[in-house]
Structure formats: C-alpha cells, structure tokens
Amino acid sequence: MKKPLFLGFLLFACRTVFADVALVADGRPVSEIVIPGDAVPSVKTAAAELQRHIESMSGARLPIVSAASPDVKNQIYVGGSAVTEKLGVSTGDLKYDGFKIVAEKNHVILAGKDVSHFANSFSKFKDVARANRQNAWETYTGHKWRFPPIVEFRDFNEECGFHAGDATGTLYAAYELLGQLGMRWYMPVADIGAVIPKLKDITIRDQSITREPQFPVRIMGDSGIGTYKEEFLWYKSMGVGSAWIMPAYHSLSGPTKIEPEKQPQEYYGMVGGKIDYQSPRLTNERLRADTIEYLEWVDKGFPGIGYTCIGQPDGWSTLDSTDAAAGWNKAAERGSDGAFSDYYWDFVLDVRKRYLQRHPDRKFTVFAYSSTQRVPTNIDKVPDDVSVVFCQNARSWMLPNRVLENRNEWLAKMSNKDQLLVWEYYTLHAQKYNFPPIPVLFTKYLKQSFDGLYDKSAGVLVEVGWTSPEVRERDKLVLSRPGISHLLLYLHNRLCWDRNLDMHAVLEEYYSLFYGPAREEMKEFFEFAESVWNRPEPREISANGGFLKPADVDRYFDILARAKAKAGDTVYRKRIELIAAEMEPLKLLFDKLKRSGPSLQIRTTNEKPAIDGDLDKPFWRAAANTFLPLRPMSGKAPASVGTSASFRWANDNSALFIAVECMEPHMDKIREQCKDPDSKGIFSDDTVEVRLETPAGIRPLIVVNPAGAILDECVTGDAGALPGFYKVGAASVKKLADRWTVELRVDAKPISGVRPVPFYPWGVNIGRQRMAGNAPEHYILSPGGSSFKDPKYMANIFVRK
Fold it and tell me: Among 594, 621, 637, where does a domain finish?
C-alpha cells in the first residue's frame, strides 16, 4: 500500500496483522466515535472534525459518544483514556506533542499529547477584553508598563476553545487518519480549499504507528489566526502547535514604550543632543533593575512557562551618544548586523545573572535580530539556559547574504538543540508590506534551511501575512492572498514533521489533486513562479530594475488563462480564478513605475499630530526630517520665495501627512479671495496644489489658499474607480510675517491608499501658484514642463519597512 502523503510525520511502525476496521459500509455508519467524558476542547474538536469530514466523504454521520455502545460493532477512540490504556495504548512515551494511531480488531485509537498551554498559563488575562488589557496589566503590576505580548491572544479560537500554539496531538492524529483516506486541506478557503474524496465504504487499515514532530515549537501567527474557525483548523491540520512555550517578544519595550516621556528619562539614550525614545540606554542601572522587576511580574502573571524573555525593543536602530563614544557601537568592525551585539549581550548576561540569583531554575530567550543578529564577541559560548531567537529571511537565500553564515556562527557556540529558535518571515503579502502579488516559492532553499535545523533547533516561528480588517471580515480569512500564499506554508509545515520529505512527490500530488485536468499548466505556473523568485537580483521591483520583469507578468496570466480553459466549469477552475484575481494588480504594476519624476524616500511616524499649520513643531523639524525644495517652472526662484514640502507616513498605514512651506516677502499682497469650499475660483488665488495617485489608481486633488479655503476632489480618469466623494482628512493654514504654511492629513482608506513602497509607490506632485509678485509664478516638486497635471511627471514617494 502506498504511504499516504498528508502531514508527513516521522513514522515508526510495529505492525501485527489484524483485520481492517470498517467505519462506513455502503454509505451507512458501522462505527461510532468515543471520547472521554472529561475530554479537553482540542480532543472534542478532533472528534468533531472526524465526524464532519467522514460525513462529507460518505454521507454517513458517525455518532459521538462518551462510552462504547454495546450494539455498535466498531469504535474510534479519540483521546487517551483508561479505556485506551487498557487496550494497550499509552501516550506517556510520546516525544513532544506527537501521537499514536492503532487500528486492530474492532477499534481505532487516536491519542496524542494534549496540553492547553493557553488555558494553563494565560487564564489571568484570557477573558479581559483586548481594549482593557493594558489597564488590567497596569492595575496588576502597579506600573505603567506595557502588557507583555508573549503570545497573540487572537490566535485563540473561541468556538474551538483552544489556541493555535497549544499541543494538540490527538487532533493531529485525526487529520492524519483523514489523510490516509485521501483528504488534503491545501488552502483555508471555504468550498475550494480542501480535497475531499467521495467514498461509499470507509475502512481503516490495521496499523500501529507513532508519529512525532521534528521540533517542539512549530508556530505560525502574529496575525490573529484564531479569528475564524475554518482558517484556524487549517493551520492545525498541518500540525501547527508547540510542546512547550518559548516566549519571543520585545520585553524591553515593557518598561520603556508606554508613555515614554513619563518614564524615568535615564532609561533612554541621548542622540544628537536630544533624548531618543527609540534608543534604550542598556548601561543604565535603573533600566536593568526595572527590567528585572518587569520580568518577574510577567512570570507571576503568566505561570507555568519555563522561559523568561530578555528581548530587545522593536525598531531599535540608534545608540546613546555616550555609550557609542565608549566603544559599544561595533558597526565599523562587525557590520550593521553585529553593531549592537556586544552592547545587548552585556545587558543580557547581567540581567540573566541577577535573575538566576532570585529564580535559579529559569531559562531565557534572547533575540538575534537586526543589529544584534551576529554572535557577540563578549561570550565564548551561549549559556546552556539561554535560547537564541534568530530572525532570518530564508526567502532571500538565493542572494549574496550573511544570514546562514550568522546562523551557523550561533550554532557553533551552542551545546544543545533547544538553544536556537528561528523566527522566519516567508510571506511578503501582509498588509504592512504591500508586496506585489506574486507567488513566493523556493523549495530548494526551504529544504536547505530545514536541513540545517534538524537536531539543532527547537523549531520555527513564522510570521505570516495578513490582510486588512475589512477584507478579513468579508472573506472570513486573516491570511492575505491565500491563493498565492498557501503552498509555501503547506510545504513548511510538512517539513516540520518529516525530515525525509519527498518534495517532488508532494508537489506532483498537489498538482494532480488540486488542479485536476489543469495539472500540467499549474505545474508550469508554480515552477515558473519559483524560477522568477530565485533570480539572484534584489527582492525589489522598481523603475530601475529588480527580479520581476514586465514579460513575466504576461507569462503568468497566459499560463493561468490556459489552465482555466483546461479546467472547465469545475472547482479546479475556481482555485485557479482565485490565484488570477489575487494577481490582477500586477497588470498595473509597471505602468505605475513609468513616472518620470524623482523617487523620494519618506519617513514613517507613530505620532498623530494636531493639524494646525504649525510646521515648527518637532513632528516636522526633528533633525532627521527633511523638507524638499520645489523648483520654478521657468527661471530661477529667489530665496525669499522658496517653497518646500515634507511628508510622513503613519506607521499604522492610516494616513499620509504633508507639509508645505511658502516663503513670501509680500504677505500683504497674497491673493486669497476665494472663501467657499470646492469653488473653482480658488485657482485665481495664491494656492498650494497637491496631486496624488495611489497604487489603486485613485487620484486625489487638494487645493488650498492662504485663507484656508479648500477644493478637494478625485480626478481619477476611470469614473468607475471614483469614491462616492472625497474629502481631505484634515487641513490647516497658518500665516506668519514672512511665509504661509499648509498642513494636511490625507486619510488612506477612502482612496485605497496602501503603504507606499518602492514597487508600489504613490505618485505625488505639489505645485505652488504665487500671485503676490508682478506676474503669476509657479513652483513644482516634480517639474514636467507645462504638464503639471499629467501623472507620468509625478514623483514617486515610498517608505522602507
């Protein structure tokens, strides 16, 4: 019998020949599902999943009972119990959250390690509403410290009653049994994501198998994957979970990130003569002592977790000037990925030592992330009680990079396999990345990454891509673009359980089962997608180049068109159509990159400033912030009438902030006759005119005069793409003795304004019409002769994550 290709768990089999066990005969149930009376939620879910999928296959609904019925011949025992122990099946010898399947005589036993980590360790705050959690934490600790995001609470599914990270061995066993029957769950999309065979008779072959994961920790999340039951169970069907909790979060943000201006200012470094709240001063004794107190509160608040996380803050990129002068910044010697390693580990080792004096049995997790990715020079080996959370991007291993070298450097200084936990970023399709919708697939490098981790790592935590709240509620799905994201995630999870996975066989089965008559076309599609992704060019797409070429887009859609034609009016076509629909924006991609204006990188901000026209506030005048000069359409502009503009992008992707400063030696002569909103008369005044184009092709126009009158509308060429109305989010004008200023908040959502990045930049042009001189004068950010209104002359603005 051919070995089933499902979760692909490591197999150890001791076979004694018994009769196969019948579950369904001629479409009628001939068995029942038995669960313990005190079954935990994941075991109850395992029984329910068996019941619903067997019914989908055969039409027969097996009853779920708490004890075997004397008049039912065959039983499926789900979950370990006294009955299964009596039948000779124990879970006590299982490694991690593995499972056993035994089928013999008249019964099938599915039993695994089941541990409800979330219920056991997070119950104190589990039922506190998310909006109230910070206040509850402050009340509990007596400090204005950040609630510790040890796990994503939204990865808990209320309907099922357990968390994606829980150990659910029995549930894995249920999905393995369904896999033996031919079920495959490739994608978390209702009606089209699973392959469900139609069977009149269902019989389980006699067997006695034990299957265990390669790693104790196999997490996917950071996006709320417990929100929708079907999606949540898709992750669990692939063996997602963990045998124990290894927290990996930015714990140093705990005492430093909530209202930093009200925290002890000695926590923070001085950079350029000013306090920098993004720069923790790790040499400060009070920060060290308070971090220890914070971590003690975390351990008390979340009991039963064996690890304490000493995690650097997110977004940390600068060092206190005094500490840098003392030699702690090692960028010159060790590069950007090792610049702060010694500095961070000096802090880590001291906090660890002092913590162990109070709690001698603790273990610790520590980040190797960004400027601390490299091994520090101030350790000979990683202490046995410390595990390093190494942040990597295996998706880019085809490029010249040092990530794998850095990872191996850490492994050389470790003495046990649980000292490395990998934090991985596979999918670029999260809302915050706004990456062009192409399949990200790299089977060779994926296998290479795993081959370097088997027997050397505690596992992998994958940060998956998620979509916007309104889209997720519409589709009942958190995963962004499941059509082009699912395959890599599926293969990843297979490798978490099977080091000997035959990738070729798995893919061949996938093409056949999931695409039917279009298998060859879809095989061509994914193999082409992998060849495109594996090109040794930057993972960027811009007017100056990158790995994706215009001809690739044509070929993608040509293959998909041929596949749809071959599939006919079937579920196979619906799967292909989903992929094509997700990739549709690619057709506009290269047109948007044809703008002839300059490419301008702008800064991000967590602040939400008052829009009052004051451009002298720190939000606009911080040392690192810049104003870009506008150039005259003809002639040379005198300095006295210089015009400049600046931009900020909100980190939460909610808005673009724009400031324009118009120097004016004759403020008494400015023309500001228009007072009415949306009046065309404004074009006769002194004005600032802002033209934008979002990646969706929507083009807002905002015109402001010194009197504060505003004309705001969309001038999108395609009337079908116009919003019902357009109003700039907020606008303000301020007049001073020698200038007038305009400050705007352009809300992103009403204009489909996703984050501007190099491959999906926003088009922008800003013009100033000056009427206070002897003749009208015009100054433009991106000059295009007399074609200020033509989008092709716009500048491209973008941010980098």
Answer: 594
